[in-house]
Amino acid sequence: MTYGPDGALYVAERGANRIVALVDANNDGVADVPLVVADHLIAPSSVAFAPLDGDKPSGPVKDFAAGWLKGSQASGRPVGLAVAPDGSLIVSDDKSGYIYRITYGK
């Protein structure tokens, strides 16, 4: 679960194998209808990016960080995301017990 720059809360629905965006369009403090941004996922084996145009998906979901799945064997399971004050992405892995920090070069 993480907040996007658009203010939406992005939640992985593990049992439903999808990711939804909870958008509060009218700012009443209650999420409007959940927007499915990724569906029919097999298992969490990567960190993906879903481009949005406003509150609607605008392109294919693309892997941003991957490598936890080798064939049918998972070496890890990325389940939690946070953005650090310096802009790096923090990823928790509940299979291996690691926390990863992903940075980018300018």
Overview of this protein structure:
- The protein is mainly β.
- It has a domain at 2-75.
- It contains no helices and 13 strands.
- The chain has a four-stranded antiparallel sheet with strand order 1-2-3-4, with no helix packed on it.
- The radius of gyration is 14 Å and the shape is globular.
- The chain starts with a strand and ends with a strand.
Portion of residues within helices: under 10%
Q: Which H/E pattern describes the elements? A: EEEEEEEEEEEEE
* Largest sheet: number of strands, sense, barrel closure: 4 strands, antiparallel
Query: What proportion strand?
Result: 35-45%
- Tell me, what's the shape? globular
Number of strands: 13
- In terms of quaternary structure, what is this? single chain
Radius of gyration using CA atoms only: 14 Å
Main-sheet strand order equals 1-2-3-4
- Number of helices in the DSSP assignment: 0
Mean pLDDT across all amino acids: 81
Cα-to-Cα separation, first versus last residue:
27 Å
Query: By helix and strand content, what is the structural category?
Result: mainly beta
- Poorly predicted parts: none
